[in-house]
Amino acid sequence: MPGLANRPKKIAILGGGIASLSAAYQLTNRPGWKKDYDLTLYQLGWRVGGKGASGRNREHNDRIEEHGLHVWFGCYDESFKMLRTSYEELARSPGCPIRSVEEAFDGVDTTPYMEHIGDQWLHWPVEFPPNALTPGEGPGNLSAWQHVLQLIHWVELAFETGFERSPASSTAVHHVPDWLEKIVPSPETEPSRYGSHRYLSRLTRLVHELPEDAHAHLPHHHHGILWLTDQVRGWFHRETRDLLTKDDDLRRIAIGIDLAITIARGFVADGVLIHGYKAIDGEDTRAWLERHGAHDFSVWSAPIRALYDLCFAYVDGDLDQPNFSAGSSLHVVMRIAFEYKGHVVYEMNAGMGDVVIAPIYQALAKRGVKFEYFRRVEKLELSADKKSIECVRIARQVDLLGDTYEPLHDFQGLPCFPSTPLVEQIRDGSKLKGINLESKWSGWTDVGRADIHAGVDFDEIVLGISLAGLETICEDLRCDSDWVALLDGMGTVQTAGVQLWMSRGLTELGWTQPPLPIDAGPEPLDVWADRSAIMHFENWPPIHGPKSLQYLCGPLPGSFYEQPSSDLEVPEIAQEEVDQLTTRWLEEQSQVLWPTLTGENGFDWDSLYAPGLTTDGDRLGAQYVRANIDPSERYVMSLAGTGHLRFKQGQTGFKNLVVTGDWTHTSWNAGCIESAVLSGIHAAEAIAKKTGHGEPERGFFAKLLHRLWKIVRGLF
In whole angstroms, what is the distance from residue 632 CA to residue 649 CA? Predict the structure, then answer.
């Protein structure tokens, strides 16, 4: 057809999670992008955001309802960069209560654990000093060697803080073999009194004298690091064994030192410095720590349990089956601990759909991205030669009264997604009452078809649907062995999200610490945060409304997603299960956090805000207790030995197919916002390369650096 080659490439983005939004954002980041691309995003139901979507329940005081507890870490550079630009482009009016990233988030410098010692639960505060950096700006990621330097530096500071005045072991000696003496000679005067300090001082000098580029290190340098870390840790284990259950502060410092030394040692021994974190992907984190000599008390300590809890790292939600790849988990830890900017954690000042998803959606719509809501992707069909996608089978869930669906409604000047569709825009919208169009088991009869075809409706596809949702959609792609390995080998887990509006304030609940997110709490709802601060963005009675809002989340045992869509009882059964789990937790574990709510008669159910309701079940039913069982809602796991199964975004085995999501390969390889955003960036880069439009521009400075690099490379 004449002129066909010169028309904009039609890009069909399937799914509206944060990875898909990121891909659309990157593809439209270049001025004049419309001459290159024609972007349409197809989304199930009435909103975008994926697992990060939240809604306002207009029938219940416009309360915020989310999939679970979301926090952003200060190392989420690309996520903050995208969100900041979105707010800037929107230039919201002064009447909008959230107009910038700074208004959307509050920084947090403490991330406590709960620690179970004997028969007691203890509060373990963990402080991260704020810095002057801004997320999304400034220096990039640290290398694995820089992570080692940070670990050794932290050990030195912690040792001086906790053990400078501890008695020396009578057996402490300081012998250094001749080969090591040649690498790091002893100074004329040892800088410390005790043997372990002497070993530690040599270790510190050695690592700081080595080149920044680990490829320039020699084998004997790494042998020296291993020998010295073993000496430091060996002495340390002997000196601190009696402190592990007697002194809370020293025990926690001891655990931190033990873990830091072990991780640094393991990175050197297993080649992480040269080959990256994929070198230790094949082992579970606890097994890896044990192999490198960590104390058993450290391996099963609160910080390690917090790591598993944070990422729901339990096979089938079973707490007896923890599984988290050492490569993925430890890379996440290094970035959170050593690469944060400003504050280690940022809490949102409303729901995630309000402060993150809505502004990104609005910015994309303003740029010219088209959104097709109520489009349920059913299947990707291959071409006759099985080398590309020929057709995408899509069901049209509803008919609209107008040409497009406008998904946002205004609450106190803030654009928000509702918890249910805006039926006033839908033909026969009243029939949707009680129907969940986001559910596999909705029982809803689609009104028609919206299939799209290669060469007509799309030139390239960006598949942004979450991993567990691909099982039926990508059935035809199983002709490729890599797809078989991906779909059968990677894991997902269903989760529970609980929001409780309470008739008592946080101090009345008995919590005596600041209202900070808590990890490694009582199982199975092991992550908790007081989110009372966001209630001013909800529409409660000013006097007789709730006094606090509590979020809890954790793994939910089972695999409901395997049940056929024809089994319409699945959502009800899952809801009963998550209700029972929450009830047991409230009755048996809640006193750990809220001691005033449990007395001789058990949990005080009247503390749940539910005017007019009297039974325990009804009062719980008035809260928001959610079973995340739908395929697209399940959390993507980083199981040991599965990193190699993850696709790079443009390497799918099919000519016109690019993938994106936190199940694909990024530098994170863990379920989080930053991983999804990075995947979207890589997907956009793959599309740009395939369509001959080069890498999407990511700002003036990125463009300038790229040009300078080309000039320098040309000189040599």
Answer: 19
The angle formed by the CA atoms of residues 531, 536 and 542, to the nearest 5 degrees, is 120
Beta strand 9-14 pairing with 345-348:
unpaired
Phi-psi category of residue 138: left, alpha or beta, with phi > 0 → left and psi -120 to 50 → alpha: left
pTM: 0.93
Cis peptide before 524 (omega within 30 of 0): yes
Please name which of 241, 237, 264 lies closest in space to residue 330, comparing C-alpha atoms: 264
Neighbours of 471 (CB within 10 A): 14
Q: CA of 86: how far to CAs of 31, 346, 353, 357, 634, in Å?
A: 15, 18, 14, 10, 28
The letter for the amino acid at 650 is: G
What is the Cα–Cα distance from 79 to 135, expressed in whole angstroms?
A: 9
CA distance 589 to 555: 16
40 phi and psi angles, rounded to 5 deg = -130, 130
Per-residue pLDDT tens digits for 395-418: 999 999 999 999 999 999 999 999
Of 583, 585, 527, nearest in space to 551 by CA:
527
Distance CA 21, CA 628 (A): 21
d(CA 66, CA 553): 11
- Other Cβ atoms closer than 10 A to 520: 24
- Residues 521-579 have pLDDT tens digits of 999 999 999 999 999 999 999 889 999 999 999 999 999 999 999 999 999 999 999 99
Residues 124, 125, 130: CA angle, nearest 5 degrees:
160
Using CA atoms, how far residue 404 sits from 25, 28, 38, 370, 536, in Å, is: 21, 21, 17, 9, 32
Look at residues 277, 374, 309 and name the one whose alpha carbon lies nearest to residue 116: 309
DSSP single-letter state for residue 169: P
Amino acid at 524: P
3-state SS assignment for residue 527: strand
Positive/negative CA dihedral, 95, 98, 103, 108: positive
